[in-house]
Amino acid sequence: MIRNTCLWLCSLLSIAAGAETAFENERARWLETAERSKPQLHYRTVKPVAVVTAVKDSSAYQGWRYEKTGEPAELYADNFNRRMTVTLDFGEHLVGYCSFHIKELTLRQDAPVRLKFTFGEVPAELNVPLDPWRGSLNRAWMQDEVVTVTDVGSAIRIARRVAFRYLKIELMGHSSWDFAIDSISTVAQSSASGVKTALQPACPDLVRRINDVGITTLHECMQTVYEDGPKRDRRLWVGDLYLESLANRYAFKDNLITKRCLYLFAALATKGGVVISNCFETPQPHAQEISVCLTYSLLWNSTLLEYLIDTDDRTTANDLWPVALKQVEAALAYVGDDGLFDRPRCPLWLFFDWRDGLDVATPMQGATIFALQQTYELARRLGRENEVKSYPALIRKMKTAARRHFYNSKRGVAESGPDRQVSVLGQTWLIKSGVLTKQEGAMAIRTALATKECVIPGTPYATHYLIDAMLLCGMKQEARDYLTAYWGGMVEKGADTYWEAYDPKDDFISPYGFHAVNSACHAWGCTPVYFIHRYPEVFQR
Q1: 303 within 8 A of 290, measured Cβ to Cβ
Q2: Claim: this prediction has a pTM higher than 0.90
Q3: Alpha helices in 23-161 (DSSP H)
Q4: Where are the beta strands (DSSP E) in 174-241?
């Protein structure tokens, strides 16, 4: 599934219509509040731990692994004119800026040196041809940089911030004089500092490893906003914001970054007041205006509610309350008198997963009900129930309509669309919204997973909601088994951080037509941290 730009443009035009700009008198102040809430970055210098060689291995993730073949000290003493290429392992995933130094070995420099640096998060990224380019996203996302050194003797910092574990250096141009790369390091950065929670002593080793990789993923994505992926898509997305804030609750407990992100989205909303799916910080804060994703807009409300629960910051919640109302209004514009979300009439992007062919009619019905519930709970905590007094009756109406239109009681499973598609996410969102009882929900999930043609999640993002739904239905053992199999599968395949897309049956799954452009450190993969700590009796026993 590729993001449909034409659809986004239609979304923007329909949402932005109107003579007046919503929150016009508040946006500048909200941006100022976001700026004041910017977290400080913490830095550390990291050096490579090994020289490695690529090994093609069909049993390894995406067909490649590295073997240690030397020490960095050997590189520093070696004539690079003879070596020509080297790959270094820094031993961990890093986000930051790489620097290196060149020294003369014989004679004097008589010409520039041209070096190519290629940074990779996973081994395959450095060992598959990038050209001719096969991906649907911009080739410039790939982390290969050519550096020309004209003056030997000073440290050179590569200007681009990179996210990587492995670094390949290739000699592209040189003269007769001999030289060595005699030092190389990376100044790694993150705004996360100090894990604030601990696991029980009896926690199983695999669960502990899953938790550790989740914390590392969150750490790397916590910059001055919650980044989607520090390698690619280096921006803030609402869906990731929601999941990262949940994991942050049980990891670093830095609520200031959540506040910053909430205010950025509020200030950069469409003219009509709808939160845009993603935004950038530089060169000045701005949203990707052609990207309105209604499912993400609704999750902004959930993030605000969870922020209030974590902080009791009623000032912020009240300040942003009008924005929450606008998100619900945007969704209800497509709910008919019959209580159904009219998917064919809605021009907006509705994202639930990177799965081709997923019918979103049933998930969207559930997601809209869930948003109404979350917003009503936000109102209740702020003493604003009178402003949303119509919500309870509307929720009941939409639940009734959902059962009548989507739930097949004979099969015990939710269906979606004209072909009555069975998907895991169809069950998930009817469970989260309370359309199905615990018993019905448990049966629906089991039935769906046992159905051969069922559409299963293809990303950690969608899988998060499946685990959540299982726990809501009391499926404790099944939730534990699925989480440890799914995220544990990535850990067993060598993940330092969790991947953007993962299918245990397809290591090469990619929403973009080429697996190398996938993000291997992706924010929405960090939520095992949330589950493991929120339900210790399930996962830590």
Answers
A1: no
A2: yes
A3: 27-36, 72-77, 80-83
A4: 178-190, 236-237
